[in-house]
Amino acid sequence: MTAPSAIDVRSVTKLYRRWGRKRSVGTFKAALLSGRPGRALAPDEAIPALTDVSFVVAAGETVGVVGPNGSGKSTLLKLLAGILRPTAGSISVRGRLAALLELGAGFHPEISGRENIEINGLLLGLTRKEIAKRFDEIVRFAELEEFLDAPVKTYSSGMAVRLGFSIAAHCDPDVLLVDEVLAVGDEAFSRRSLEKFAEFERAGKTLLLVSHDLGLVAERCRRAIWLDRGSVAADGPAGETVTLYRESVAEREAARRARAVPASGQAPRIGSGAATVQAVKLFDSADRPASRFVSGEPARLVMEVNAPGRLTDFVFGFAISTVAGATVFGSNTAIDGFVPEELSAAATVVLDIASLDLAPGVYSLDTAVHARDGSPYDYRRDVLRFEVAAERAAEGVWSPERRWSFSGGVRWKG
Length: 414
Description:
Elements: E1 5-23, H1 28-34, E2 39-58, E3 62-66, H2 73-81, E4 88-93, E5 97-100, H3 113-123, H4 128-142, H5 157-169, E6 175-179, H6 187-202, E7 206-210, H7 214-220, E8 223-228, E9 231-237, H8 238-260, E10 269-270, E11 276-283, E12 292-294, E13 299-306, E14 315-322, E15 327-332, E16 340-353, E17 361-370, E18 376-389, E19 402-412
Parallel strand pairs: 3-7, 3-8, 5-6, 6-7, 12-18
Antiparallel strand pairs: 1-2, 1-4, 8-9, 10-18, 11-13, 13-16, 14-15, 14-17, 16-19, 17-18
């Protein structure tokens, strides 16, 4: 038997009007206000925020919504919450709805947290008796005992989010809409929020979660909807949808970087040029060029270098970072015990990684050849990017088993 739907979105389009000056008949009053007869403020064009969006969420489902900024995610939640009305199409939400859509939304900044709890509880459909019964738990969950009687305008962003989420979570909603609530709270609050999500799921509640935390969506949601430029690009199991979205991000970023490469065709680099990195490649276990891996697969990093003159002081290195710039792995020949003897011609440097045990995401590769004191001969940052997919989300840093090999004009002591 199919579960009844909690959310039903059918062929929804939402247009925003952009206003500007253009030629129109106008009224006499409009002509006087504009200062130019025959010209008045009028809508220049309609900008679509959502276009023909349709989906159904069954009662008890936990669904994530992902997509880049400007893809229509927040507009969708505001339509579901009844804050906005669709330009076309229909929306149906069944049961008591609670929504936490943006920082401080629904709060009166001049009155206290205590008064805002009472007002928001009433707006969410609770009686005064029900609010009184749940009041202490709302305050404890939000950890605002000391600030309860202070005006909300004095709250930090994290305090405001904790209060808003606590009120929404304790009003016993059938459907909860959440927009990036975990991005502002601290670790302890995030953990309590995730526990509350699990509690909702066990109770058969419906949760629609917008988040840029793709690991969270893949792990906590059974299903995910990817919005792209206001349309549904994918709708399916959360892990599959997140992978498709990550692949799209990686492809777009690769295209952007290709357009940004200087006319010489070389990526930005620094160094004296005493040795140069001629090419950098990434191969999979079948020795094929690769830009996408499954976590745990082997990978081969290859650097082709050249030294126009004889060098006796040199180090080769690779580093892997997140696209946000956090280093997750870095090593070089000096760290791994190689003592240089001579580099005097073209050489190939290979680093084999037996198991690419990275969390899912898009990563950036840096390469370098430099002196032992760190002086760069050729340092190439963000020379290529690759994507890692995994069945489960993960966090942390990484130091894998690894093996170096060399060919051509390079020799080591010992």
